[in-house]
Amino acid sequence: MSKSMAFEEPIVKLREKIDELKEIAKNADVDMSEEIVTLETRLKQLETQIYSNMEPWDRVQVARHAQRPTTLDYIEEIFEDFIELHGDRFFGDDEAIVGGIASFNGQPITVIGHQRGKATKENIRRNFGMPHPEGYRKALRLMKQAEKFKRPIICFIDTKGAYPGKAAEERGQSEAIAKNLVEMAGLKVPVISIVIGEGGSGGALALGVANKIYMLENSTYSVISPEGAASILWKDASLAKQAAEAMKITSYDLKKMDIIDDIVPEVAGGAHRDIHVQATSLKECLEKALKELNALSEEELIEDRYNKFRKIGQFIEEDEV
Fold this sequence. Notes:
By secondary structure, the chain is α/β, with parallel strands linked by helices.
């Protein structure tokens, strides 16, 4: 049986059964159309049942799927004439973050995003999508360039978090992230961020101070991974499933808390099932957001971004005793 996530196994088995019947019908010249139609109808019902009742931990698994579309996949599908730019002009080029200039419906834009690999060799090259400080400094360089030439900025978030290694800390990891947060807050051009996979901790937030924040339906956005939270709270990483439920890390949770602007629906089973359909949904979302943000002045964009983050969270004033 093909590799699948645990909750998907009944669907995978049924798909394999359908493929088997189609192969028999083809090779043996037997009419099995009625049986195939019956099973395909059952498959649609099963997909609806399973994918409409996914638990937070199920969505974490989908967000981490090895074949889930990456930033470069969406760039190829959505934008035209993409030119990748490299380096932070201080230390080097971090391939865990990609960025450059492109055209979107005829409008010049800057696009930046975390980039992980889909196989071991590429994951090592991309440091598993966990940026070093030079990655964030590259991103900021491209953002300031976009501001200079009045290009909207589109960010794709997909990282477990910033790389926590010794070398990254020595080169100023926390300072690089903090500077991105400050500078993004004051950018005079539209900024749109989309969580396309995992959005982990400050490593994600460094590309997330935006006017509009969207999440793919099965993506996650949190201050720490479920395994990390379980290790801290209960000293047991195996309780990650319970942590995922308690942390409210799904797109639906974050939309309910008004942390994100909207959810981009995914094709049944996850974005990796059909990149073309998924990219079309994302493109429609971006078109709508850019149309709204392009109408705002520089001052209005900054004010809009400030108000967006100012209202996140709740606090209660108590009378002094």
